[in-house]
Amino acid sequence: MVRVPSSPFRRAVATVLAAAGAALVALPAVAAAPPKGHDVSSHQRDVDWPKARADGAGFVYVKATESTTYRNPYFRRQYDGARSAGLIRGAYHFARPDKGSGRAQAAYFVRHGGDWSADGRTLPPALDIEYNPYDRRHKCYGLSPGAMATWIREFSDEVRRLTGRRPVIYTTTHWWNTCTGGNRAFAADHPLWIARYEAPGPGTLPAGWASWTFWQYDNGGGLPGDQNLFNGSAEGLKRFAEGS
What is the model's pTM? Predict the structure, then answer.
């Protein structure tokens, strides 16, 4: 996930929730305190899932794969452990557009944890597409905006073919507008997972999106890994998992 410095406005969870409530102006009042969640990878290793649940986690995304060569060695016990503790959980893939086609990476992801079922406990697969952590000079992995949009579409089409769901897209506004040229075509059928750590809310969204589904608001806090919110109610989260 995105690793950017925390801003001076970094807040306690209660303050972030209050800010998120202000951002949910289109939702009923009952959704003013949206479900909390988090995302984890091999960095978190063995997570105490019952404690995470007791600390307020309602959902989690677990890193499954990267490129077509890496599998999170802790994925299975993180993923199954989250479900056993009662969390709604899903898997995400860290995109490497410089290391193979979108179609090949999607197939690898689905084979190694990125599948989906309409059981109300499984979030749709997610694509983590962001700054190149291996070469800061090439934030866009050496692809033109048009080629990047094509890569993402190939990944999405293959995920949908294999699972029946379009992937959630995790990104930042700056990366998306820079590396896809502000492509607006994905907003209609791809839920947005926006990463932004500054108060008071998710801020300006990537081109095309009018609303967000998940908001990653901090890279540390009360829950293991990165801190997230769902834009809705607990019942809405379950319906989203079911594919409603």
Answer: 0.89
